[in-house]
Design a protein that fits this description.
Length: 709
């Protein structure tokens, strides 16, 4: 059997003794760097060196507006499993050094963004020209990795030592002007002059080979800088993660011992990180999030004019996010004072990215009203008033009678039944829940909650609106608390249950942070307000779905007792912690006295285990009862929305990593009936299966084609 050769990923043409190589990965909208690209580049580069009629090489992209998106993330697990992975990377590094040391100059021409592995190819060149729209960066650290194609060493050829360290450790990006100012780009030119500029630089380098010298670095000063950054990161909130530590190791070697030693360190470090659980978790989340975004494309009826009912924190955040993302926002509230606060909220959000001259035309896209004028012209309306069903019903009845026949209608709620609210809407097929998270402009998740009458088209349009607002839209079922509020309620309750057993507040929260949660459950009570937790997490969620396995009444009684004693949260100055001028100054251990509970010397590791398992157990039950379309959705929502440890990749990925049978054992040890494993996890434990292999379910309540949302 014969196999047809794969098409080239690079096209070559000659231009006045200069070879122009165009990256054009077939069947990809953007170039990615994989084994094929590297093999083709090596072959073409060898041909250029062997051709006496060619004096120089220009590397560019045939993809419109983009040079390359980096390495193919889906290929990385395959690379990790290869026994010859180290030899493969050594070959990649050899190719990069061949380009760096080439007797024929190489010029990179960036017609758009260049990230990760694509930028590493560029960094081996001798001049870099870019269009004004170009953006560059090495974001591998965000995947718990480091650049593996030579980037840890090649970046130092272009930028100062401080920038070399900062760009790798942060994974940040630079626009074309910033890259030029730091020395990473040689020249910024208009798109129609990009090739001409690249050819001009190629001719200059041919005429003057001495101008190809890269930037030098002082070894002693560089090593001292790396050591200082290492110490600062170790003492910072972000911490010294394994990826950052390995990056700093590679930099120290490269600065003090030279590029070849640095590349050897990079190979070892890259493979060690790639084969680590943290990297597998990060890659899983990246791919799951990318899949959700892919399924959110393609809806008709692009929203440009958004109506928001309610000028409180959530409504103001939704409107400000819309304006910052290019939409117009019409905000309705009953009082001019609320609208003034909403407009001030917008100004604060826009100020973070305002032009230096202070004039920001984006603000003109925001308008406030105490009436209903303008709502008939909106493309979508999000109701975001207080969490009172009767108020929401009244507003939805009014607004659904005002808007056009194609207007998307949504309610922002964390727990109220979408089905019950749909009865107030004149066109229920165009209505669904959109649960945003606070602060809206920063939180990346939005839950989409259809009801029985929501059309597949509406769900797709809502997903597209979510993406337009910069959110990751996860579809969940219309059950009490949906997904995130339900799981979060269970986690908050476990914090109170530990407290009722005598575990001090500081120990509870330290235990949570020790297993990877960004905050502890009692601090979370304080931030939200204890009264709101009772209303939302206990009344609306836990009392509807958890009373058969947890003593919810005891938790309610404890919280109400604390409220009566003035333990209300950060805004009121006293909660599970004490506050001075709004700042936390220490735990409030007197809450145990208020509750009549004697403090105990708790096992912090056991407390952290219970908090982790309480969260995960509720997620498993949500999969059992159909609240989720796929475990991957639960992982993304858990990490992006409610703080599950990112390093664990989400509760379902974590269960797959640990093994279903082992997780079942740990749940049983934690408390049995209060920590149910759920039917799916039990079955996986018996069969040796994984959540990752589950089939995707259609979106709840919609016909199967609604899955595209």
């Amino acid at each position: 059997m014969t196999h047809r050769p794969l098409p080239d990923t690079i096209r070559s043409r000659d231009h006045d003794r200069v070879a122009v190589l165009e990256l054009d990965h077939p069947d990809r909208s953007m170039n990615v760097v994989d084994e094929r690209v590297l093999s083709d580049l090596g072959r073409h580069f060898t041909a250029v060196l062997d051709d006496d009629s060619i004096d120089a090489l220009v590397l560019t992209s045939a993809k419109k507006g983009s040079f390359g998106a980096g390495a193919d993330v889906s290929w990385l697990p395959e690379l990790a499993a290869r026994p010859d992975a180290a030899e493969f990377l050594a070959g990649v590094h050899d190719l990069m050094l061949r380009v760096v040391r080439s007797p024929k100059p190489v010029v990179a021409a960036l017609n758009g963004a260049a990230f990760g592995g694509a930028l590493e190819l560029v960094l081996a060149a001798h001049a870099i020209v870019a269009v004004p729209e170009a953006v560059v960066g090495l974001p591998e650290v965000t995947l718990e990795l480091l650049p593996g194609g030579g980037g840890t060493q090649l970046l130092g050829r272009w930028v100062a030592t401080e920038d070399w360290v900062e760009l790798l450790v942060s994974g940040g990006r630079l626009n074309a002007d910033q890259a030029r100012d730091r020395g990473l780009v040689t020249e910024v030119v208009a798109a129609d002059g990009l090739l001409e500029a690249a050819l001009r630089h190629a001719a200059r380098l041919v005429a003057d080979p001495r101008s190809r010298t890269g930037r030098s670095h002082d070894a002693e000063a560089g090593a001292a800088l790396v050591a200082r950054v290492r110490e600062e990161r170790a003492n910072s909130r972000a911490g010294l993660t394994p990826a950052v530590e390995r990056i700093l190791d590679c930099l120290a070697v490269g600065i003090t011992e030279g590029i070849e030693a640095g590349l050897a360190a990079e190979r070892d470090s890259f493979l060690a990180l790639l084969r680590s659980p943290r990297a597998r978790a990060a890659i899983h989340l990246f791919q799951a999030e990318a899949d959700i975004k892919r399924r959110s494309r393609g809806a008709d009826g692009r929203a440009e004019r958004l109506g928001v009912v309610g000028g409180g924190q959530m409504g103001s955040g939704i409107a400000a996010t819309a304006v910052s993302r290019g939409l117009s926002a019409l905000v309705r509230d009953v009082s001019a004072e609320s609208l003034d606060r909403s407009r001030a909220y917008l100004d604060r959000v826009l100020a973070r990215s305002a032009p230096e001259d202070g004039a920001d035309p984006r603000a003109e896209r925001w308008r406030g009203t105490t009436g209903w004028d303008g709502f008939a012209e909106t493309d979508a309306v999000v109701e975001a008033v207080f969490e009172l069903p009767e108020l929401k019903n009244e507003i939805l009845t009014t607004v659904s009678g005002l808007v056009g026949e194609q207007t998307l209608l949504a309610t922002n709620t964390s727990a109220i039944s979408i089905r019950s609210l749909a009865a107030s809407v004149r066109a229920p097929e165009r209505f669904l829940g959109m649960h945003f998270f606070s602060p809206v402009e920063r939180m990346p998740l939005v839950e989409l909650i259809p009801h029985e009458g929501t059309s597949a088209e509406t769900l797709a349009r809502a997903a597209a609106l979510g993406r337009r607002l910069g959110k990751v839209p996860v579809v969940v079922g219309d059950a009490p608390g949906f997904f995130t509020s339900r799981v979060y309620a269970r986690w908050l309750i476990e914090g109170v249950r530990l407290l009722l057993e005598g575990v001090r507040p500081g120990v509870v929260d330290s235990a949570a942070k020790a297993v990877g949660f960004p905050v502890g459950p009692l601090q979370a009570h304080d931030e939200a307000g204890v009264e709101l937790v009772v209303q939302a997490s206990i009344t609306q969620v836990a009392e509807n779905v958890m009373t058969d396995r947890i003593d919810v009444a005891a938790v309610r009684k404890a919280l109400e007792t604390l409220l009566e004693a003035g333990v209300r949260g950060r805004r009121q100055g006293l909660g599970f912690y004490r506050y001075a001028d709004g700042r936390r100054v220490g735990p409030n251990d007197e809450v145990l006295d208020v509750l009549g509970v004697a403090p105990v010397d708790a096992d912090a590791a056991a407390a952290g285990e219970r908090l982790l398992l309480a969260f995960a157990s509720e997620c498993f039950l949500c999969w059992d009862d159909g609240t989720l379309c796929h475990p991957d959705d639960g992982d993304v929502a858990s990490v992006l929305g409610i703080g599950f440890p990112r390093a664990l990749g989400g509760p379902f990925h974590w269960a797959d990593e640990v093994g279903a049978a082992r997780v079942v054992e740990r749940l049983a040890a934690a408390g049995g009936a209060e920590f149910p494993a759920g039917a799916a996890l039990e079955a996986l434990a018996a069969e040796g299966g994984r959540f990752a292999d589950a089939a995707r379910r259609p979106a709840p309540f919609t016909e199967p084609e609604g899955e595209s949302a």
